[in-house]
Amino acid sequence: RQNISVSIYACHLSPNLRNHPLITWHRIVLPGPALLRHILFPFISTLKIKKEKHDLIIATGCTSFLFDINIVHFVHHGLHETLKNLKIKFGIYQNMILRWNLFLEKKIYRSEKVYIAVSRKIQQELKQHFNASQIKTLWNSLTSRHEKLWQPTTASSRQISKPLQILFVGDLKRSIKNVKTLLQALKDLPPTSYLLKICSSMSYASVKNQLKNIPHQYLGHVQNMDQVYRFADLLVHPSFYEPFGLVILEAWMHGLGVICCQEPYCGIAPLIQGKPGARLLDHPMNHRQLLQFLLEAIETKNISRSMEGFASPEQLQKQYFNFFNEVFNSKSN
Fold first, then answer.
1. Residue in 55, 107, 106, 56 with CA at minimum distance from that of residue 80
2. Which residue, among 71, 90, 287, 297, has the nearest Cα to 173 in the 3D structure?
3. Which of 53, 213, 240, 290 to pair with 121, CA 20 to 30 A apart?
4. Cα(15)–Cα(2) distance, rounded to whole angstroms?
5. Residue 168 near residue 215, CB atoms below 8 Å
6. Residues 30, 32, 34, 37, CA torsion sign
């Protein structure tokens, strides 16, 4: 847009943004291991932001103590409540990170501030835990990279493979992804009826014992997920805390069937509930219901899916820009 310049405070920036004529990158270089960098970032970014004059400050989550608008993708107080309700305990390292983020959220998320929530789930958690009232909900949607996949009408030409190609994406050792429930259900399926494809940054040696007697293909860390979606039929994502679910959206866009959890566990659920190809678990630990859904998917001959209810990339960009403008004008007045 004309007469707008953007300053970005970040450790890393993609080459196309670095070279953009309207963008100035204020690089933040932090020492030490990942946990220390995570702790330092909001303090260093705030100090750097204070040194410059800005008309509008937009933060994402707990990345700065200064902001006019905060785009919230994750609420750790919501995760903490879910862990208590499900009686799940994190390991020492994960618990340290969670405790630090709970502290940060209390300091940063103040009730009088303006927020953008990327799902209804996030909106409800901001209201519940921080008494926030100025919240605009702009559901996550496609990026411009996926624009060609956006079709508001229903597509029903995708044929199901035999055996069923099941996709799991995520860290197998993080309890939040709930892979145990998936593996428990798969062990009750005929082994010739499916193949589990796994995309994960974990080394295969560290997780192969979990996959014993499960027909699987371990793909490791994948840069181009488009190729993986092309050769899969069904994404199973039983995560018990998913603020939105970008991997679910990507799989849905590529025409895959999806098994995930209902609200309040999964943010994207209201957008796909009741649509052909979407099966929503009442409870993330319900492996019997998951098994039933898998059996239904094996018997399915083709998948229909609809992008109705999702904003196109252009629509989402306009919604964000209009809201930024609205907040800037109210601030100026």
1. 106
2. 90
3. 290
4. 22
5. no
6. negative
Classify the phi-psi angles of 308: left when phi > 0, otherwise alpha if psi is within -120 to 50, otherwise beta: beta
SS3 label, residue 244: coil
- How far apart CA 9 and CA 59 sit, in angstroms, is 10
Instruction: Count the helices and strands in the chain (H runs, E runs).
Output: 12, 14
Which pTM value belongs to this model? 0.90
Beta carbons within 10 angstroms of residue 264's beta carbon:
17
The SS3 assignment for 24 reads: strand
Q: How far apart are CA 234 and CA 231, in angstroms?
A: 10
Distance CA 40, CA 63 (A): 10
Q: Say if CB 129 and CB 77 are below 8 A apart.
A: yes
Whole-number Å distance between alpha carbons of 129 and 76: 10
pLDDT in tens, 157-177: 556 668 999 999 988 777 899
Q: How far is CA 269 from CA 163, 170, 259, 302, in A?
A: 27, 18, 10, 21
pLDDT above 80 for 143: no
Cα–Cα dist 28/48, whole Å: 9
